[in-house]
Fold this sequence. Notes:
Elements: H1 2-26, H2 43-157, H3 166-175, H4 178-191, H5 195-212, H6 215-231, H7 236-249, H8 254-266, H9 270-283, H10 288-300, H11 304-317, H12 322-334, H13 338-351, H14 356-368, H15 372-385, H16 390-402, H17 406-419, H18 424-436, H19 440-453, H20 458-470, H21 474-487, H22 492-504, H23 508-521, H24 526-538, H25 542-555, H26 560-572, H27 576-589, H28 594-606, H29 610-623, H30 628-640, H31 644-657, H32 662-674, H33 678-691, H34 696-702, H35 704-712, H36 718-731
Helix pairs in contact: 1-2, 2-3, 3-4, 4-5, 5-6, 6-7, 6-8, 7-8, 8-9, 8-10, 9-10, 10-11, 10-12, 11-12, 12-13, 12-14, 13-14, 14-15, 14-16, 15-16, 16-17, 16-18, 17-18, 18-19, 18-20, 19-20, 20-21, 20-22, 21-22, 22-23, 22-24, 23-24, 24-25, 24-26, 25-26, 26-27, 26-28, 27-28, 28-29, 28-30, ...
Amino acid sequence: MKKLTLLIIFIAFQSYADNHNAVSNTQSPIIKTSTTNHPVMGLQQLQLKNQEIQFQLQLQSMKNLQDKLAEDNKYQDLRKNVLSSRESSIDSWLGVIGIFLTVLSVFFTALGVFGFFVAKNKIKEFDNLNKEAKLALREIEAHKEKAETNVKAIEELNNPEKEPSNKTLKEVKQSGTKLEKNIAEARTLELEGKTGAAIALWKEIVAIAKYEGNTDQQATGCFYLGYLYGNYDIDHKESLIFSKQAIEIKPDMHEAYSNMGNAYNELKEYQKAINACQKAIEIKPDNHEAYNNMGNAYNELKEYQKAINAYQKAIGIKLDMHEAYNNMGIAYNKLKEYQKAINAYQKAIEIKPDNHEAYNNMGVAYDELKECQKAINAYQKAIEIKHDKHEAYYNMGNAYGELGEYQKAINAYKKAIEIKPDMHEAYNNMGNAYNELKEYQKAINACQKAIEIKPDNHEAYNNMGNAYNELKEYQKAINAYQKAIEIKHDKHKAYNNMGIAYNKLKEYQKAINAYQKAIEIKPDNHEAYNNMGIAYGKLGEYQKAINAYQKAIEIKHDNHEAYYNMGNAYGKLGEYQKAINAYKKAIEIKPDMHEAYNNMGNAYNELKEYQKAINACQKAIEIKPDNHEAYYNMGIAYGKLGECQKAINAYQKAIEIKPDKHNAYYNMGIAYGELGEYQKAINAYKKAIEIEPSLIDHAKKQNFDLLESYINNLDDSPVKQQNLFILNQLKGHD
């Protein structure tokens, strides 16, 4: 440090000296050369003159130099004196400065040591603060994350479309506010199926929120009450009230408008439902629930295409909305676009494989396509998913009924009733199945049960009437049909069936009146036209009968019963070829219609085309081996062909099938007479008259004289006496 100071002082002093020298130099005299003009001299003179001048200049220069050296010596002495004096002064100052710098150095060293320890402590403090800051930051991040989780949890709790997880419920119950904990508990109760308790707690939540001035939570609570009352079919009017309250508190609450739409749907106020849904969509254009509910309203208004459009809009917003696909399928079903319906149900099932509703509805669509086994498979799938799916059991029963498997149908209906004891529809259809199995009393019992559950069940009264008809309790049947008509004035089936009962009672005009009423209600009622033809036939009004049958055929071109009955009417009018043509048409439609073959055989007999008659009767017997009528008609044909033994064989076969077939006995008697086997003829006549006493008149006219001649030619014997006794007995019917 001392050396550095000396160096700086020396440089400063040297700079001063240099400046002083520069000043001295500037004060030296300057020799000026004379420039006066001289006359021109000779060259030699000029040269000499020039040399003289140069010599004088050199002398002057030397003198100047000497003077400068003397001056310099004096300056150097002075400089030495100054330097000596200043050096002494500088040494003094340097000593002072050295001491000062030493003290300063010691001070700074001490200060440095002190500062080091202070700094070290401060650094340590800073490290501690840094650590504390990091911990605080982590805590802040954790609280932030927890806060975000709580917000998400609360949002999840307030979202009825999403089932809150157990984790969410646990988090809110642990760290939520009292109100939030109540909400979590309310959702838990809902998930546990304790809807009543959930509603009570939501009401408490609404009251607390109102007291605290928490309008958002109050609106949410009202919304949830509306949701629970409506979604669980508890009270749709209450649902409407709470939904409206939610909107009053929070006018832009689109979820509450959706609830209102659902409630209005259930209350069958479909236009109001649509209006509510439209309002929800105005507030939130991507409200898929509102579009779905609006579709449901349009479905109920039978505006099926508008319904489909709404469901498609819902699906466009929420691609995995299985409910919309299912509902769209229902709309397609109503439009009879069954394959499109099935496609929609399949899509719903793809999204939600355990969608029992979609499986059940898909079964209905397959039923409509007459693919009953596929329908049954769909219903079974629905039942696998939801074991107590009474609708699926009921529908499966219907499908089995379509397949003619009536016992399986009954079993399915019984299963539906086990699950839902007041399912009157199942009792009713079970009654219908019992009718098909000819268990008519069981059918009546089932129908009575349906009526107990639902006193205005017109279908049950109608089916009960059918059972009474089959039991030949025609008046009871008529009473049941009348009851059905009282309940449902346009019950054309009941009018038609009542006509059948009047027919059985031989009250043909009343029957015709009933059929006409059925036709008034349903102009395309081919069954009523066909049955009315039968009644006209019974009254002997065969042309009116034919007109009625033709009308039935116009409505239903493949109406084989109408063709068959028309054949009978033509037969009554003696128009046998027209009758045969009608029977052939019936057989084209229904190749196993044995009755048509039999009656065609009879018509061929009338046309004396006996071999064709025999062929027709044989065909009838092939289809129905116990067809006694066919055997009888075949016997007539053989008799006309003179093949009496074959005729007798045919009559015997008819009698085996139907022992009281009196006309077969009578004709067999004729055949025996033709063969000369009078004893057998007498026995056959006797049997015929025992069964049907009125046949005695025919016997008298045709065969008694022949029989009396035969008896008189017999030898006098007990046999002759016995036969005379029989003949006299027969004559005694005179």
